[in-house]
Amino acid sequence: MTTSPSKWNVTDIPDQTGRTAVVTGANSGLGIATVEALAGAGAHVVLAVRDVKRGEAAAAGVRGSVEVRRLDLADLASVREFAAGWQGALDLLINNAGVMNIPESTTKDGFEMQFGTNHLGHFALTNLLLPHITDRVVTVSSGAHKMPGSPRIHFDNLNLTGEYAPITAYSQSKLANLLFTLELQRRLTESGSSVRALAAHPGYAATNLQSHDGSALRRALMRVGNRFMAQDSKAGALPTLYAAVQDLPGASYVGPDGLGEMRGAPTLVGRSPAASDPATARRLWTVSEELTGVAFPQPASVSA
């Protein structure tokens, strides 16, 4: 996809020299496209990846200042280890990593894999790093948060035990990403912090995420869609980058401006009613603290 010159693109990213960013799931797809753009604008970017060798191979092709550190979001011990090893200021955390529509499985800590990786892992990582974060947190969600069938948080059965369906689990995790952003921003504002929490979604972007779908039929359909309908990963990363560098209000949600938010240049987009409910967001936060053992800390950037 070629973005119109009048539309926002990577050439509009302001100089990032002197800034440090962490991008999770950064060795392929949207992650590496995000790394390339930020590093190309002058930022020092840490690729937080589960497979260090793959991360190093990806980093080798990036122009700019980058490094690779191990992070497995499906293992809270790994999340804690990553955060404990962080020193100094962190301007930008991009919660990009995710799994999609996979067969039923669990994280090392026993959580349903999509909810545990996409939401709980990032929830713990963000709160553990928050004392270092000085600018913003961007979490990648999906249009799947408002799939037909009214996605919701299954508080009575978060692991979907006995009722697991890949799409249901994915939609729940992406809805959780938006509710997390909403409540995180409320807490940041209440604490007097200047740190902002934002969310973005890539529209329909061709990445290797779809190749792990638990349904052979959906994998086949997505191969066709990736070839003829989807935008590439560089275009898919634009909403994340826009949320990362533009002066936007906290809790903003960014997506493509095209038909059905499937492709196009980044713009502010709407959430579903379920993703806008502050009471559900607070309930999810409380449950997430209980499940991960990680609570909201004092942020690094607090106004006087």
Describe the structure.
The protein has 304 residues and is of the alpha/beta class. The protein has helices at 29-40, 52-59, 76-84, 113-129, 166-191, 216-228, 233-236, 238-245, 278-292; strands spanning 20-24, 44-49, 65-70, 90-95, 133-140, 196-200, 253-256, 266-268. It has an eight-stranded mixed beta sheet with strand order 3-2-1-4-5-6-7-8, with helices on both faces. Helix 2 (52-59) links the parallel strand 2 (44-49) and strand 3 (65-70). The radius of gyration is 18 Å and the shape is globular. The termini are far apart. Mean pLDDT is 91; it is low at 1-5 and 224-228.
Can you describe this structure in just a few lines?
This protein is an alpha/beta fold and 304 residues long. Helices cover 37% and strands 14% of the residues. An eight-stranded mixed sheet has the order 3-2-1-4-5-6-7-8, sandwiched between helices.
Residue-averaged pLDDT? 91
Largest sheet: 8 strands, mixed
Q: How many β-strand runs?
A: 8
Order of helices and strands: EHEHEHEHEHEHHHEEH
Report helical residue fraction: 25-40%
Q: Helix tally?
A: 9
What's the multimeric state?
A: single chain
Distance between the termini: 45 Å
Radius of gyration: 18 Å
Strand content: 5-15%
Strand order of the largest sheet: 3-2-1-4-5-6-7-8
Indicate the structural class: alpha/beta
Low-confidence stretches: 1-5, 224-228
Spatial shape = globular
